[in-house]
Amino acid sequence: MSETNNVYVAYQGNSYLFGGNAPYVEEMYENYLADPTSVPDTWRAYFDALQNVPAADGSDSRDVPHMPVINAFAERAKAGVTQVVIATGADSEMGRKRVSTQQLIAAYRNVGQRWADLDPLKRTERPHIPELDPAFYGFTDADLETVFNISNTFFGKESMSLRELLNALRETYCGTLGVEFMHTSDQAEKRWWQQKLESIRSKASFTAEKKKHILDRLTAAEGLERYLHTKYVGQKRFSLEGGESFIAAMDELIQQAGAKGVQEIVIGMAHRGRLNVLVNALGKMPADLFAEFDHTAPEELPAGDVKYHQGFSSDVSTPGGPVHLSLAFNPSHLEIVNPVVEGSVRARMDRRNDPTGSQVLPVLVHGDAAFGGQGVNQETLALAQTRGYTTGGTVHIIINNQIGFTTSDPRDMRSSAFCTDIVKMVEAPVLHVNGDDPEAVVLATQLALEYRMEFRQDVVVDITCFRKLGHNEQDTPSLTQPLMYKKIAAHPGTRKLYADKLAVQGLGETLGDEMAKAYRAALDAGKHTVDPVLTNFKSKYAVDWSPYLGKKWTDAGDTAIPLTEWKRLAEKITTIPATVTPHQLVKKVYDDRAAMGRGDVNVDWGMGEHMAFASLVASGYPVRLSGEDCGRGTFTHRHAVIHDQKREKFDEGTYIPLQNVAENQAPFVVIDSILSEEAVLAYEYGYASNDPNTLVIWEAQFGDFANGAQVVIDQFIASGEVKWGRVNGITLMLPHGYEGQGPEHSSARLERFMQLAADTNMQIVQPTTASQIFHVLRRQMVRNLRKPLVIMTPKSLLRNKDATSPLSEFTKGSFQTVIPEQNAEVVKKADKVKRVIACSGKVYYDLVKQREAKGADDVAIIRVEQLYPFPHKAFGAELKRFPNATDIVWCQDEPQNQGAWFFVQHYIHENMLDGQKLGYAGRAASASPAVGYAHLHQDQQKALIEAAFSKLKGFILTK
């Protein structure tokens, strides 16, 4: 023994106290700081001794650093001391046992869920976890009746026998509901969970009516699946059979959320159980679903999509009033819908001025394998608490089939104990629950929602169930999972088990059968199975998309602004308050912009962009700009956020001029996002899908970073309208241009967007002047057309004086889809022109210099600023200005198999005059977007510019 501050400390071996028990020590210390009487006397004496160390600030604060406590025990462990008993005098043995009871409690709170009864199939024995065995701490059967103080628990008693305590812990943490929450660093949250679970021992206490309602929802879930299985044999529907408790969870979530003041719920989920949710949670008419199976549903869209990808919305009645439900459209890329839902929720929150998410709730439904396996989940979780993306906490529900895809071997599904372990990165609690205990599922849902509304954090309900049929209804899972499917074949079904349970409780022996018959009758009649669905309710926050439907892209809109308004806005956005000290380089940028605003010098790209934003927010159009480097701009051209060089606090000292344009202006939001492309772009797409009045922009740090978001581009941006009828006005800014910087930062893969372009589904532009970026950004909002806008933005042109524009081009005119020949002498001698070079992007400026060097005034150069929809009328008119031209050349920086060449050649050919020939000038086809050697880049650039003026070679297309 050794004496420390009059507290005797004895050491023994083999204890849970050290090594993995640092959380226990820290939790005990947290409890002590919150309430010294909540810990055993021996621990309180020890911690009191620590308080003799003066606080760093000289105050009487009890909250000394935690690490000295943890480190003290760690040092003892290194020295071979593996157990601590704190006691006084002869009471050391009892003191040891008291400490051991606290260790036992901590163990169950920390790892009890690993021993919980979660598997409905009971395929394996529950694992042996030594820390949950009293013998691990030296207890014997003789100790079971010994009474210990347990004042730091919520079991309703100050003391319990070891036997009572053990039973209480097992009931609370190892029953059909096992909860992980001790990984959170917030002591208030941990205490909240302990109180909620231990006070009821994780057992629901429902009325008879509530139990009947749960059975009704299980009956509906099972009834729909069996109905479809017999009526539409072999057709894919991704059955929910085996996971019927999920419908009871969704029903409870909707009703309780409404009771707590939620007015909108946005749901994202993949295929499993989707049709069941549509009918039994959102209230889709069964007759409408059957029409889709029968192929008699009206075909209203150019492409359409399969029924288990379809979205839906409805309004249902809840104890708190009407709740609007939205199920997001989803492609087959599993979890990719999740950030789309989050963006949609944020737009709804902003529209309601609901910064905490009190009125709007995101709900994401996952499969077990996809949740842990799809990287977009990590990206989406990383957004959860960031300022520009938080949605006040998401309720995640996992339909855990324990199998993933049909052929998965459970040993190869993941590297973690649970599929939910990924959420520990945001310290989200997880409620693991046995799907065969629907009351526990409903309880878990209640607790999860209550936690979300209290703490505004993500939370997960992991429903462990099974999948009765294969991955789809054409699959035979027993081919690869014979043992599992023998168990499943013998399982009577969750509904039957629960109906039998209620019958034993005296709630009616025929109740289950009666409900099944009633539900079948409702399906036969094609009636609603959710009561009540509000068919005539319309929220004042609903968005009217009708003004944007059926419009033509050729409407340019009035994008010029009056000179007086230009100067007023320019002064506003170039005035920096005296209280802000900008960096000298930033000050010069703003001084130069002030001169541009007065008309003293031409306007550069950054000023043109800023004036577009300023004029929009002044007119009532919000602007939301996000990306990895948006505030400053990757190429330091933007400086939308001015950082005070004399600021003293991290969270102070920034000034955003665009937020100070007018007294009642619309919001301007600029967000430096996390280092993510896929989730952030999907989030912004979701935002734009619910707010046509906001200019929503995602800017890639480099254009090729869009590669990381290709699923979003393919499945949502390019095809969302033709598949689902979802109109969207998102704008992508993708820096693009060959500057000798190597393969990774040259190309935004223009060819990919051109390949996806059809059905006037998007706008693809490559502006080359400051006035063009001004007009195209304004055009995106002021005309009543909402189509995705893809802008290939420049890099070197941001500071190229040739790309600047006079003030007059902003106060007059509009976006030019084609910029005609600008050389007055060439235009004057149009009948002498023998060659027309068509191009897009910065290569135009290289061509102009080459023409001047050669004195080739018989060559006209046309810029195609909008590549899709191709401006046939404008381009054809320019070709007709040069009727004697025999050669038409398309010139581009990109390799021949990339860029716009393979797509525009057909458009150009359509507008050529008889006898004209079309050729190509550019880099040769290449597997890489660009070379990595600077000298080789220069050689290639020189050669392609020269080729534009040389005799046509290679592939030549003749009219």
TrEMBL record:
<dbReference type="Pfam" id="PF16078">
    <property type="entry name" value="2-oxogl_dehyd_N"/>
</dbReference>
<protein>
    <recommendedName>
        <fullName>oxoglutarate dehydrogenase (succinyl-transferring)</fullName>
        <ecNumber>1.2.4.2</ecNumber>
    </recommendedName>
</protein>
<dbReference type="InterPro" id="IPR042179">
    <property type="entry name" value="KGD_C_sf"/>
</dbReference>
<dbReference type="Pfam" id="PF00676">
    <property type="entry name" value="E1_dh"/>
</dbReference>
<dbReference type="InterPro" id="IPR031717">
    <property type="entry name" value="ODO-1/KGD_C"/>
</dbReference>
<dbReference type="Pfam" id="PF16870">
    <property type="entry name" value="OxoGdeHyase_C"/>
</dbReference>
<comment type="function">
    <text>E1 component of the 2-oxoglutarate dehydrogenase (OGDH) complex which catalyzes the decarboxylation of 2-oxoglutarate, the first step in the conversion of 2-oxoglutarate to succinyl-CoA and CO(2).</text>
</comment>
<comment type="similarity">
    <text>Belongs to the alpha-ketoglutarate dehydrogenase family.</text>
</comment>
<dbReference type="GO" id="GO:0004591">
    <property type="term" value="F:oxoglutarate dehydrogenase (succinyl-transferring) activity"/>
</dbReference>
<dbReference type="InterPro" id="IPR032106">
    <property type="entry name" value="2-oxogl_dehyd_N"/>
</dbReference>
<dbReference type="InterPro" id="IPR001017">
    <property type="entry name" value="DH_E1"/>
</dbReference>
<dbReference type="InterPro" id="IPR005475">
    <property type="entry name" value="Transketolase-like_Pyr-bd"/>
</dbReference>
<dbReference type="InterPro" id="IPR011603">
    <property type="entry name" value="2oxoglutarate_DH_E1"/>
</dbReference>
<keyword id="KW-0786">Thiamine pyrophosphate</keyword>
<keyword id="KW-0560">Oxidoreductase</keyword>
<dbReference type="Pfam" id="PF02779">
    <property type="entry name" value="Transket_pyr"/>
</dbReference>
<dbReference type="InterPro" id="IPR029061">
    <property type="entry name" value="THDP-binding"/>
</dbReference>
<feature type="domain" description="Transketolase-like pyrimidine-binding">
    <location>
        <begin position="603"/>
        <end position="800"/>
    </location>
</feature>
